[in-house]
Structures are given as structure tokens and as C-alpha cells.
């Protein structure tokens, strides 16, 4: 049964009537997105990437919702995130992407977690820990096929076959990561697939994982054994050159704290970067960059100009930002809204409808990933969908 709940009773939670912004999170849409990705994964197991506090929506809420949908494997970036995920998913397989930090083997063992090993040093340490325990614990091996960020080089990966340390632990997964899977025609995709195929041939019998969210939708990509979607789960478009197959998961409303008229030739906000060329009505919202809304969304120019800047929806009307985003406040031009349709205390839409996370990111000169993962702690969080 679907229900609408808010985190009013959680420690540190903000009640809606005291919050400058209200973050709406649809757990049913999250689960539906996972099922859509599973159905496009060519029979491969579909995991879920829940790093960065499940892309801002909450590990403790997202992981159980995905588990109920059928997800059995999760990826996080940090060991602390894995421990949180384990607390709400006692039977799941949980991998930690950012490698094995020195001396953390006992913590992995205590919580039944799996490191993603990306260097010979990490492999040697994990093997040594397993030898000392006299137990072959599982881990993934990450080989870099083009990102030049984390992982063994391809030559190192090919040399793994002869490394004696591999006998001391279970290689549960061989993985790499696409560089540009969202660019369907990028030749690097094929180069990475070919490199990964060579690695699989050198290390036969190990479950393999390459596709991320966008990789699932690449033409001609092998599904391998496991796919690792992240951004698409949360409503981001994994196919930027096509319509978004995902449902929106996140919506954001901000509260109007004041309305005022600004006379012609007056400026709005810090440094006077936005000029009213005629009389304009300005609404001030109780949200700012301290809440994770990017300052790069600031509107710098003249009223009436088509600026690449932040936008809101107010009583159904698109209303642009006016001036710089400040720490706790955003000013918007609401002149287009009939005066009887807007008042102090109303909420306006910052994310929702046509203002998707991808569009909000574009207007801020960034990407939807950054919008999601910066979602602030001062918002009241209203979850739709069954929890617990």
C-alpha cells in the first residue's frame, strides 16, 4: 500500500511547517525505475548504486525500497556507507567501490562487506587478511579500461592470472566502468568493451560487470553478468539523446518568505548583477546554496532577457531567478503570476514537472548528478511509498 509520510519523528528531521524547502521523494518510482532497468539488462543481475546517501534521497529509505523490488546487490563508495546499507539490508551483497583502505579488513569482515580491489597493493593486503583468517573472503577486482581514475591497468589485469595472491580470496566479480556510455556513438565504448573482453578471456569463470545506467541502453553492448545502475534509478536520463525512460523520483519546493515590488532601474541581490528594466515583482525563497542549490544558477543580466539561469514554477507559471543565489535565499521574478495567485507562505517548484534534475543541472551549468547529491539537510523530507 502506498502512503505519504514525512520524517517528522526522525532525529534531526525538519517538520514541513518549519522548513524553507520540502523535498518530495517517491520510493515507488525508485522501485519502478529499478524494474525498468532490470527489464533492459538482457538477463543480467541488476544491482543498485546507493553511494552518496543514495544520491541524496537517503540510504536507509532507498535500500529497503529497492530490496522489496528485488534488488540483492548494492554498491557504495565508502565503507561508512556500506555499514549503513548493511543495517537495513542484512542479507544483501554490498560492494565498496573506493578500494580497500589500509587496516580495514576486520571491519569488512565484521559487516560481511566486499571491497572492490583496484591495485596490487590492495590485492596483497586483502589476500594477507584472508590468509590470516584462514578464510577465502569475496572481493571484486576493478580494471581500468579507459577512465584513468581507479583500478588496475589493463596489462596488470591480464597479469592477474599468474598472481599467487588470487588463491587466498574469492574473486567474486571482475568489473570496469564506462567513460562515456551516455554518448552512444563514442568509439571509446567499443574500445572499452574489447579491452574488457580480453580481460574476461584471461580470467575465465569470474562473474563480470561493465554497464552503468547509460551502458544498459548502449546498442550492441554485452550485458555480462551484473549491471550497476545509479543515476537512472533516481530519475536521471540515461539516454540524453532520447526521451527519458525513467520516472521522476525527486521533487523540491521552496517557501516564499516575502513578496515585494522593485522599481525600474533597481538591482536585486548581492553585487547588483540583475537589473529590473521596468517595475518587477520579486519573491524571496527560503532556500539557498547552503541547502545544496547551486550558486551557479544565479541570474545575472537584465529583466526580460533569456538567461541561462535558474527557473521555478509558480502557480503554473515559469518564473526565472533574479540576481545571485545567496546562502539561504533565492530571489525570483514573479511578475507574470497574477497577484491573487501568490502570497507569502506559498511554495514554488524548484524541481518537478519540466524542471527535471537534468534541466536544473543544465541551467546551473552542471549535471543532474550534482543536483541530486547536494540535496540539503535543512529540507523537510516527505517520502511517498511504503517504508520499513
UniProtKB/TrEMBL annotation:
One of its GO terms (biological process) is D-alanine biosynthetic process. SUPFAM superfamilies: Alanine racemase C-terminal domain-like, PLP-binding barrel. It holds the Pfam family Ala_racemase_N. Keywords: Isomerase, Pyridoxal phosphate. The active site is at residues 51, 270. The modification N6-(pyridoxal phosphate)lysine is found at residue 51. InterPro entries: Ala_racemase (IPR000821), Ala_racemase/Decarboxylase_C (IPR009006), Ala_racemase_C (IPR011079), Ala_racemase_N (IPR001608), Ala_racemase_pyridoxalP-BS (IPR020622), PLP-binding_barrel (IPR029066). PROSITE patterns: ALANINE_RACEMASE. Residues 249-384 form the Alanine racemase C-terminal domain. GO terms for molecular function: alanine racemase activity; pyridoxal phosphate binding. Pathway: Amino-acid biosynthesis; D-alanine biosynthesis; D-alanine from L-alanine: step 1/1. HAMAP family: Ala_racemase. Catalyzes the interconversion of L-alanine and D-alanine. May also act on other amino acids. Belongs to the alanine racemase family. This is Alanine racemase. It comes from Microvirga mediterraneensis. The lineage of its organism: Bacteria, Pseudomonadati, Pseudomonadota, Alphaproteobacteria, Hyphomicrobiales. The gene is alr.
